[in-house]
Amino acid sequence: MRKMIVGGAQMGPIQQADSRETVVARMMELMRKAHAEGVKMLVYPELALTTFFPRWYAEDRAEMDRWFESEMPNGATQPLFDLAREMGMAFTFGFAELTPDGHHYNTSILTDAQANIVGTYRKVHLPGHVDHDPERTHQHLEKRYFEPGDLGFNVWRNEGVVMGMAICNDRRWPETYRELGLQGVELITIGYNTPSVNSQKGAEGLRQRLFHSDLSMQAGAYQNSTYVVGVAKAGTEDGHHLMGGSIIVDPDGEVIARAETEGDELIFAECDFDRCTFGKATVFDFARHRRIEHYQRIGRQTGVIVPV
Ligand code: CDT
């Protein structure tokens, strides 16, 4: 048996005025709680260090560079890395990355138990739009401020477990899980910031938003026989509400831990990674059952083409 206690560090809202240092202090508090529960791998949300700034429109996108990190770790986050090293805790969190050559990505990093960065992922599926859209109840300008990730979907053997990362909207796409599943993933970490209102369909409601989130991650876990940890940044940020609903899902697709609040909250569960083997060797033994000769469209066609 390969058992590890995995934690999700859901975070409550971060206001525009909150400093990185204040936020990191909250992350460290969650890490201390996780350590007390025996957690060895801790998952924080997407854009964990700042407010969800893509909701704000700036004519000059360079104004938004203040939300980006040009190195990691940096002065503000170093104490979190130091604490993790002291506690022997692997972790992952998301942040806005500005590269030395001027590229902007929605990024997450993965560390080992010595706080060495062993993996980097840059969000592939960027939701929203590029220009200000007056038809929407609120803006979602990820396509304005970020470029699509250039690293693809990778896994890392970390602390004895095959781990992969995805970010927020990626969780709604089966391609995300299957790319990772084809590399034998056993733990997929997904941080998210999901507005509780659909800006183009107000009637949708929070219940259905949470259902779609659960549905996507539970299906991804089951169909690839992997654990999935989805962790929210939740609550009201400068008047805009983000849903909670952080969960840990087992390789059967069952939810084994769930957040109850919209604030800073630790969820955790003991994961036995040997449980991933059964599904991978039977109903989802890809080598025996996949028929890639019939999947060609997936790799060559992006949008829908309906026959005339
Ligand atoms: N952060 C992020 O990717 N949020 C999206 C909202 C989509 S609405 C344009 C999500 O899929 O949760």
Automatic annotation (TrEMBL):
Q: Which InterPro entries does this one have?
A: Aliph_Amidase/BUP, C-N_Hydrolase, C-N_Hydrolase_sf
Q: Which sequence ranges form a coiled-coil region, renumbered to this chain?
A: none
Name of the protein described by the UniProt record = Putative amidohydrolase
GO terms assigned for molecular function:
hydrolase activity, acting on carbon-nitrogen (but not peptide) bonds, in linear amides
Which parts of the chain span the membrane according to its record?
none
Pfam families reported in the protein's UniProt record: CN_hydrolase (PF00795)
Q: Which organism is it from?
A: Cereibacter azotoformans
SUPFAM superfamilies hit by this protein: Carbon-nitrogen hydrolase (SSF56317)
